[in-house]
Design a protein that fits this description.
This protein has 128 residues and is mainly alpha-helical. It has one domain. It is 70% helix and 0% strand.
């Protein structure tokens, strides 16, 4: 399910309005990240060009974590009858069949990582 050559060209040419250098950097990072995600995710980004490059880049990072979680998930591997799969090769049918318990497992692990990152950032910023 990897990206075909046309989609890779479309990703390379993907543009959204940028207002500053930081957004331009995020757009370039987004273009680097999109090929590692399933092709149907890029279609979502194409339909959401009105969002800022920073917002889309943050969305892409969240998708990256989600599809990495799915590629390591036993239920997904069992459903696909494979021992391993690339995050970019997760078929859309898996999303339709994903049990609530598996989604909740991701949500729990995501927020645990997020909270640990916030704690670390707070510790780095603390004057004590």
């Amino acid at each position: 399910m990897s990206h075909d050559n046309k989609t890779l060209r479309d990703i390379a040419n993907f543009e959204v309005k940028t207002k500053n250098l930081q957004q331009e950097k995020h757009l370039q990072q987004l273009k680097t990240l999109l090929p590692s995600l399933p092709p149907y995710v890029f279609k979502y980004f194409q339909k959401n060009r009105k969002r800022s490059a920073t917002t889309l880049f943050n969305y892409a990072n969240d998708y990256k974590l989600f599809f990495k979680f799915l590629s390591d998930n036993i239920w997904v591997l069992d459903q696909l009858n494979v021992s391993s799969i690339s995050p970019g090769d997760i078929p859309i049918s898996i999303l339709a069949e994903l049990p609530l318990e598996e989604a909740e497992e991701f949500q729990g692990s995501f927020f645990t990582k997020l909270n640990k990152a916030k704690i670390t950032m707070n510790m780095l910023q603390s004057p004590f």
